[in-house]
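Quick one, probably user error.
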């Protein structure tokens, strides 16, 4: 399985991001790259909450091969030139700024976020490919599409209830085309989303399996008329309801 350059950024940083060296972390030996498609561990991370201290370590292993512009390359190494747009109050550190396939590395995001919102991370990467006669720079890439870090306001996810299922506010609300409803589960579960109009008619339904951590339903309202709609989120124990507005 080959990865494109966008996935390389996601693989390295998961939900993280501004490069600093000397991360005081140790790669998790249980993180194994089975089949060598590349890997990162853990797969789910605690939610980032405004004004709440955060400290999380990720272990990552680069894939040996990837595709770019329709061409398959063998990766010799990957240099991280810089990373921008880390949430205010937080720092990203890594054990290295250069990586080779097959080796396990670790990085760390820590600090206390001071401003809620979504932060689209900008990755500046320089991949080197193996052409048989030595590594050659493929080029320099700006990847700002792979990772979005969200810092939640305390009015959303309650940090004191991390052992309970929680549903976060719909964002954005009102919306025009697509909105997102996030939920947090501390255990494996199946979660269902249903959307109704003001007459009680069901307009949408979907269900997904969820491992411990934060997940999202991305809801497209392209087929809905402008107006007020109600949603119901159901897990194996509880039902949550709320409303959102489509503007046009």
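Nope, works fine. Designed sequence:
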């Amino acid at each position: 399985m080959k990865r494109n350059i966008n996935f390389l950024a996601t693989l390295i940083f998961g939900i993280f991001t501004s490069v600093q060296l000397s991360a005081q972390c140790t790669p998790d030996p249980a993180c194994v790259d089975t089949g060598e498609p590349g890997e990162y561990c853990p797969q789910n991370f605690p939610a980032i909450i405004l004004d709440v201290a955060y400290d999380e370590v990720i272990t990552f292993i680069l894939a040996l091969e990837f595709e770019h512009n329709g061409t398959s390359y063998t990766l010799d190494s990957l240099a991280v030139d810089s990373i921008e747009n880390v949430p205010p109050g937080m720092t990203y550190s890594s054990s290295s700024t250069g990586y080779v396939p097959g080796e396990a590395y670790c990085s760390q995001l820590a600090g206390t976020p001071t401003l809620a919102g979504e932060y689209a991370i900008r990755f500046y990467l320089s991949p080197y490919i193996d052409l048989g006669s030595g590594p050659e720079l493929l080029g320099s890439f700006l990847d700002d599409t792979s990772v979005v870090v969200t810092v939640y306001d305390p009015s959303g996810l309650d940090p004191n209830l991390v052992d309970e299922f929680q549903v976060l506010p719909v964002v954005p609300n009102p919306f025009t085309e697509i909105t997102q409803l996030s939920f947090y589960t501390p255990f494996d579960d199946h979660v269902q989303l249903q959307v109704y109009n003001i007459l009680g008619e069901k307009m949408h339904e979907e269900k997904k399996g969820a491992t411990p951590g934060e997940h999202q339903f991305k809801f497209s309202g392209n087929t809905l008329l402008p107006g007020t709609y109600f949603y119901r989120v159901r897990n194996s124990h509880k039902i949550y309801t709320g409303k959102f507005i489509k503007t046009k």
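The helical segments are 5-13.
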